[in-house]
Amino acid sequence: MTGTDPIAEARAEADADALFVLTAALLTPARFPSVLGDDYPAACAALGLQPYVDGYGLVFGQDGLGARWTVVVDDVSLVAVAISSWDCGMAYDLSPDESTVVAGLPGWPLAVVSAAPGVPAPHDPEPEEGDPAPLVPPSGDVWGPAQRRLGADEVALQWEDWRAQVSDGGEGGGTPEAVPAAAGSAEAGTEAGTAAASVPDPYDGVRRALSELRGYLEEAPPVGRVRSASTGEGTARVLRADGPGWSFVARTDDMAFVLLDELPREVLPVARGPRLPALLAGLDAMAVRTA
């Protein structure tokens, strides 16, 4: 028997158009995947989007043929509810309406460890003429701005563990502001070591970051460059900030950490000292805030 089966073709086309949702993320001024950029406009530009004030939801899934897709929607509330439900261990069927879809981008910009059951393994879709290159997560084998920002995000998430490694960084501690009290390794990629004689002096990089942060108080940076989130402990907040070549993590009631492009995977603690509290208060006042 020769020729094609119209019913089989219709089923194959329907499978290709299906989207099996795996996870999602917000792309808003206050909350965006920092792997995409130092601030909200930069993160939007990385995906070819306009930095609208209301932001977007990013839905990561596979089509019926297993291809990876990032679907951008403008129904931010729907995606936020789904993420909150999943964080609480609750099931939530995230099914954005087609009318809310802004763009469908091949690939995933973040590492997604799960896969849809019953479809082929995740892979990039077959490109068609004019399609953008598939989005890919950053490599763990190199160190650069994306890996540095991911490392800072991890420090913010695991603050207590990193704080416990520094014994003299608190109020009145023995290490002055802008001088690293100790150095640790940020697990934002593969483990690597560098001979002490070949690494740059961290003092200059930390001072540069602090100086540029003070500059943010004088001239506001792009929206999302400084973000403030609740710690869940009283009035204390966690600050995340980024700039050219550096990332900054701090608690408003404690010390800070800096990561630098020129020092791969090193986390540099900055003691609270006499000047840091005022800087943290100023940054928190001008930051984009999440709950």
From TrEMBL:
Residues 176-199 have a biased composition (Low complexity). Residues 166-202 are annotated as: Disordered. It comes from the Bacteria. This is Integral membrane protein. The lineage of its organism: Bacteria, Bacillati, Actinomycetota, Actinomycetes, Kitasatosporales.
